What does this fold into?
Amino acid sequence: MALGKNYDAQDCSLARALEVIGERWTLLVVRDAMYGVRRFGDFLAHLDIPRAVLSQRLATLVEAGVLDKRRYQDSPPRDEYVLTPVGHELWLPVLALADWGERHLSGTAPRRVFHHLACGSRIDGTARCAACGVQVSIGEVEVRPGPGLKGIRNDPVSVALRTPHRMLHPIP
Amino acid sequence: MALGKNYDAQDCSLARALEVIGERWTLLVVRDAMYGVRRFGDFLAHLDIPRAVLSQRLATLVEAGVLDKRRYQDSPPRDEYVLTPVGHELWLPVLALADWGERHLSGTAPRRVFHHLACGSRIDGTARCAACGVQVSIGEVEVRPGPGLKGIRNDPVSVALRTPHRMLHPIP
DNA sequence: TACCATAGTTCAATGAACGAACCGAGGGGG
DNA sequence: CCCCCTCGGTTCGTTCATTGAACTATGGTA
It folds into this structure.
């Protein structure tokens, strides 16, 4: 979103954030990374995003310190993209946005529900556990398929998320 | 963001939300509406956004039920854009995003701080009052200029926000 | 050697954003 | 009555980003 036509004049932290995660596809890439997607091909298959755009978005996120690109095997050389601690903290905004979309746009039952690993209770739109009352970080969360989920897609990521899955843990 | 090249295949409430508020400029328009901006010209002056884009974004937000367009005087006929209850609930996502940007991207002191009107204490990134411990809705919040704010702009909105201002209350 | 998998890059066509100019309804002053 | 101003847009040519298909590079496997 850079290149002169950006939000620089805004002197606002929301505008700063949008410079990094406000471009088309970017937040969906982050969401997938939270689910545990790490490989180029898995992002590609799950998002139906043009390869060139995915490549550019991953690079932007790495540069911004949201993702870390690291070698996970040498032969053949393969890299994976993993959320950094800064990326982990996007958990709250992402959850809040998804919760808003769920409540005001979808009109059906939730597609995915998030549970506190420690106690199994659901967490709300601010990542608070209904039972414990504590703020739950993304590492302590499990995603489960919700009643509103339609199992349309058959890419590896969609298939893996049809059963409960711990956030951040690698898919598949 | 519509027209075939959208996020429809995603069956995800985050993607649904991004269809509405994920386009360039849209969330900044919503932020301004939260500050109390209501008139076309004020959005224009504060955002430095092309008129055509602003016009289109406002129409999209009205159609999505985030903003309400209403006549506030008849001679000459003038309309204003006001947040609906659905728009009010974007408070949490917007605050969470701004908080993330503040903590991880700006590197300076906060530009704006949000206080609970009832008690005067600051609220955190999940809109919880530090003192009361309650979730604070946007109507009970006051924005104040923070130590990191640089008073560069001189449009009516920027000027009004250089002093404490109650969220949603009309500017100027 | 041929073939496959992964992770990209390149490129032409399309669509969106930009910014300047224009438009129209309605005052207000002279 | 005429001119000019404001507000809230629309129009339009240029520039920029996205799309989707084809191509490249590297290394492994049969």
In short: The longest strand of chain A covers residues 67-74. Residues 3, 5, 23-25, 50-53, 75-77 of chain A lie near DNA strand D (CB under 10 Å from a C1'). Helices of chain A lie at 13-21, 26-35, 40-47, 51-63, 85-88, 91-106, 156-160.
